[in-house]
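[09:14] KT: can someone run the structure on this one? pasting the chain below
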Amino acid sequence: MTLAEAKDFYFAYKGYSFHMGREEPSRYSEFKKVCPDKSVLKEWDEELLKGLFKDLSSDQEHAWIAHGHILKIAFRGNCDAGLWGERLLREMEHMDSLDAKNRILITENMAGRTEKLTDGGVFFFCRYTGLEREMHRIMLRLLDIPVYPDEFEGEQLGWADPQERYQRAKSSYLQAYAGFRRC
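[09:31] RB: done, structure tokens below
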């Protein structure tokens, strides 16, 4: 595998080693042999992040997906957490026009999805950036939304009771913030 092929492989999976190894174990073994150094991975992750920030602002229907990928890539630690965290907060500052579904899903991204909530944006911002107060101010604005069940008609699984999902997301976010703001 050449470095160019390694980059294509890395980009196809947004750099998620778990997915690379699970979906294409032999190619992942080849990738690990090429083993790009930290400076190359930083360059690739920054390129991925730039593309995801374009998606975040241009595809409002799927903003939560780009938001989640941005957090996961920033978590990897190849890039400057403060720089990319600050950029994400600037983008989040202008998310008032997002629909309730995206705002709820972004709140879930921020809270985290594991039992200890160490995979979410709250943990990232509190632990790695020093921007937790700014994050919390922005999140309180994003959480200030009415949730009308009729907006969710026709949605797939997980949206039977949008108000309940909103309350769970909000509660998880507030729990994570209370736990990690002292990091």
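[09:33] KT: thanks! The chain has ten helices and no strands.
[09:34] RB: yep, looked fine to me
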